[in-house]
């Protein structure tokens, strides 16, 4: 379980892991852990009636590695696939084809001229790699691509494979960066994709990835042969790791960790359950119950023997789109209750409206889905209900939102609060809660209802090391918040301009703690009942009443 990209530090039970390389050939030649996704690649390339495909997935879900896998297949590199599904379970011939593999993430430029120049360089480089063509005339990107496809066809007599990774990256960054050349970039890309549409006789296979489906690019209307597999149930597990893939590929690492850390978990199932809670839960098809783990987070988690539960999502870069949304919209109120969306909301999404602050509520939810902060929780025939996929994302998103409103960072606040809660120190907790409330500017408190304070406290608890459950349902009602941390189960009831003692009494009368009594007895934990009151005028904790059950 090594962080070494070259794979020098092996364990007895697992190959070395890399989370920053996206080349299949690199994985195979360096004997790194590769989760076999070639069954999905074979499903695509063996389709009898379709050969133009598009898929959208959030960052860090293996799109680039999948593109590299397709590239190697079409270059006929059979030796790389020994032991993998496509070589062992199919009769695929590995016929060699010329491959044009474009990564548009390299095209984020500061001017229209730089962007066009970058497109020209990309096409020229691929011309040399795919067919040894070095004399391609420098024209518009569309003209260069048209000439290149024709020349390759004449030289090889075979159809070209085109792979485009992160097609939306340059235009998305231009929109978010408010660059003036966004419209010019869109026109260049439209011309480029029009050439692909009108050159189907030269193309054996086309595959394109992105984070979002940009409805303002004509590619999706012009290329009527483009098949979108983003929500196709057959490819629900193509990006990310399924539960079975996790156990098959990382089970040895789990065994090794548990053997080295006896008593850390009651069983392997309990260990897997916690991993699932933190990193699983992404569902990409309304027609399939398949859920997947974030592959980068899992790779980082198993990167070393201590298997630390950390927020690896943030360590690999926060989504620019989500941060931009947090700056422009009151997301704190939007995420209190997530509605169902029509499927059309994902298809008609237009990110260009973000720059003008014209996104509707459903557009915002769609964007958060594309960015990986929300996922499918339930699905009907025509609608989808969204929610957080797992604890890692809940923490990441909540922290990002809170930081948009706070005038300073958390600092040591969450650590200090955790230590106070471990001691059950009421005075210290109240003081830390007030430190937290004082970090928000006055305009944040325009709402003075209980929901505002509840949302703020839930955000704080989510950002701590523990399990936070808002509106926790019991047999006689809902506790405002339950926080399970270490050896304590805290059950909170909040009141605004009320008395903490009344809040504590409500916890008792409605038996909010009953559902946790067995857990506490089984695991030797303490249940803490906590009534908390706030002053809407002073914007601080006005009372704190606490008892051990």
Quick rundown:
The protein is α/β, with parallel strands linked by helices. It has 23 helices and 13 strands.
Structural domain tally: 3
Widest sheet: strand ordering? 2-3-4-1-5
CATH architecture classification name of the largest domain: 3-Layer(aba) Sandwich
Low confidence ranges:
1-11
Q: Which structural class is indicated by helix and strand composition? A: alpha/beta
Mean pLDDT: 87
Largest sheet: 5 strands, parallel
Report the strand count.
Answer: 13
* Distance from first to last alpha carbon: 43 Å
Structure description:
The protein is α/β, with parallel strands linked by helices. It folds into three domains: 35-235, 3-Layer(aba) Sandwich (Rossmann fold); 241-281 and 293-405, no CATH class; 413-548, Trna Endonuclease, Chain: A, domain 1 (3-Layer(aba) Sandwich), CATH 3.40.1350. Helix content is 42%, strand content 15%. The protein is built from 23 helices and 13 strands. The protein has helices spanning 24-29, 38-45, 63-74, 85-88, 112-131, 141-156, 169-176, 182-197, 219-222, 243-260, 268-279, 295-301, 312-315, 320-328, 331-334, 344-347, 361-371, 391-405, 413-423, 426-437, 450-462, 500-509, 517-523, and strands at 52-56, 99-103, 160-165, 203-210, 227-228, 340-342, 375-379, 383-387, 467-473, 478-485, 488-496, 526-535, 540-548. The strands form three sheets. It has a five-stranded parallel β-sheet. Helix 6 runs parallel beside helix 8 (182-197). The radius of gyration is 26 Å and the shape is globular. The protein starts with 23 loop residues before the first helix and ends with a strand. The model is unreliable at 1-11 (pLDDT under 50).
